[in-house]
Every structure is written in structure tokens, then in C-alpha cells.
Amino acid sequence: MYAWPAPELPVLPGQGASPRVYDSAVRDLVTTSPGPVARLYVCGITPYDATHMGHAATYVAFDLLQRVWRDAGHRVHYVQNVTDVDDPLLERAARDGEDWTHLAERETALFREDMTALRVLPPDHYIGVVEAIDRIVPLIVDLKAKGAAYDVDGDVYFSVASDERFGGVSGFSTADMLKFSAERGGDPDRPGKKNPLDPLLWRAARDGEPSWPSPLGPGRPGWHIECVAIALEHLGMAFDVQGGGSDLVFPHHEMGASHAQVFTGDAPYAKAYVHAGMVALHGEKMSKSRGNLVFVSKLRAEGVDPMAMRLALLAHHYRSDWEWTADVLATAQLRLGRWRAAVSRPDGPPADDLLAAIRERMTDDLDAPGALRAMDAWAERALTEGGTDEAAPGVTSRAVDAILGVAL
Fold first, then answer.
1. How far apart (Å, rounded) are the C-alpha atoms in residues 198 and 225?
2. C-alpha angle with apex 185: 182 to 191, nearest 5 degrees?
3. Chain-centre distance of CA 88, in angstroms?
4. Residues 347-406: pLDDT tens digits?
């Protein structure tokens, strides 16, 4: 599967530092310490509907991480999956009388268009589950051989008891795990399981559902094992950051870590687990199941500048939960206009302090709102006081582009 075209990153004077980020597994800020190549895995979409602003917030957050790493002199090896076969996708296709493969292809193509418009740096490997089946099956076979997986009426489940570190990613109580498992794709009440929290690895073929031949019998993979197979192939163990929305802390990232640690006999799966907050609309988290969505593609079709959308996202810290409103977008549009007016002047205030301030804010847990305030102050001086530095508007424009991803 192919990704989307990469925007050009301007070259800036000097070099930034590796950022601190909040690691959900240790419940504290940690300084990322990648080698020459920073390794990043971000869980991708299930393509049964268009990209909404909650999705966009997550992928823009990890785009910022990529940009700050690159500004610090690291290359980035970025991997993202597409869950292009799963229950919600199959249910939507059946509801609409559409072939599930066509639905997945169409919505994945629209996602690519949205990411391109938002100037999100693409992954180096963009892998669909369907094309990773031959990588997933051997992992499940190995987990069964290790005694870490078992059959329930032809389906194969992972035993969370096989990983002594289980629970270390989320830190949740058993009661909370059971609650979130039931809400987020698990089946804690299924009879025959050794532990209600044990997740599905392989779903045996059902009538009317796609399936693939395997030593486990015909079927298709469970949710968590797909990301593990893709991440281990392209990044290996102990990659720098596992990313996604905060709703993936449990069960998805918890289970993925356990699968990988039992399969390899090594730990950790990822050095840090970093999660973006949720975006709400009308008081509830944006969700395809609820239908309370603001689509990137719809706003684009209405003529909204994607850079205004990006600024609306950057105005909120990536870890915060917040609500999308018309005022959020209107404020971003005004900000974009002022910034563009400021850098369109023939000269301006010196930009060295601004670049340093943007770098300082972004290395402190990707504090985009703080970086925006620094740029607001520079733009205000440029528009009200002017300046004598002819190079400043160009340096400012390149800094905002390279680190914040906003093209002026």
C-alpha cells in the first residue's frame, strides 16, 4: 500500500533538541533519546468513513513529533498501518450494500488526500492488514507453540497471564480494563475464555465474512496482533515511540505490548507510549459510531484553508481533550491571515529569538500552543512596529513551515 506525497521541509539555521514527551506507561515526561534514526509507529485508521477532526488531531500531533526530531538532526523511520479488514468496516459495507474492499480503498484514498492537504509527513511504510496476513499468522502460530494462546470454538485467544508485564502500559485496574475492553472491541463476557481480558488473535471463518487460509484454519486476524506484526517487521523491538489516540492505551497498546514481549521474549516493545487527546463535538467525543463528526474533506470542499484547520488543531495541546466549535475555526482563520500578512512585509523584527522560542516550546512536550503564542507576538510586532531585517519574514515563514507544518 502506498502513502501520500511528502511536503518539502525547509532548512533552518542551527539545530533543535530532542523533545520531552509524556509517556503513558510511566505517567511522566521523558526525554526521547533516539539514535541517528528515530523509530515511530502510529496506529492507523479503520477506513469505513472519512477523516474527522479527531483523526486529524492525532496524526498532526505525531507529525509534530517527526518535525521536531528532524529539526534535532534525526532521520525518522515512521510506520503506520491501515485496519482494512475489521468488524466496523464489514458492518458498514453490508449496511450500504457495498463491497468491503471498495469501501476500504475509497476511504483510504480520501484519508491520503486529507493528510496531504494538512501537510502531514507520510510514513515510510504504510501497511494494510490484508497485505500483512502472511506476517501475522506466524506470530500467532508461535504464541500457540509457547502456550500463550489457546482455542475457543475455533477462534484463537491470547492469554494475558503469559506476560508478567501485562498492565504496565496503561496502569489500569482490572475493573477499568474490563470496562474498556467491553467498550473498545473486546469480548470479556465470551464463555470459554481463560481470562475475560484475553484478546482475540485469530477469528475463525464465518459465513459471509472474508477469510484467509492458514495453519490455524481459515479466518482473519484480531485487532492488536496486526500492529505487532507490522511494527516488528519494520521497526523491531524497543522502537522509540508507539503513538495513537488516548483511547488506544487500553486495550490496543497494552495488548500489543504483551503480544510482542511474549513472542520475542524481550522488552520493552516500545520505549515510550505517547497518546493524543480526544476531540469532542456537542459535548461528546467525535466518534463514527455516534456520528458526531466534522470531516476534513467536507471543510476542504467548503473552501476552508487546510492551514486554518491545522492551526485550529495546533491551538490545543496534543494531550488535551477539547471541543471543536465554529469559534475554534474562526480564530484559526484570523490567526492565519495575520501571520500571512506579517510575513508578506518586506522586512520585520529579527527572527532569531522567535526560532529559539518555537524550538524551546516544541521540545517541551510538543507545546504547539506556546509556539503559536510566540509567533503571534512576532506577527504583532511586524504589523504594528515594522522592522529592519529583510531576512526575517523568510526565516519566520520557513520556521513555521518546518517545525509547525503551516505553509504561509
1. 13
2. 60
3. 19
4. 999 999 999 999 999 999 999 999 999 999 999 999 999 888 999 999 999 999 999 999
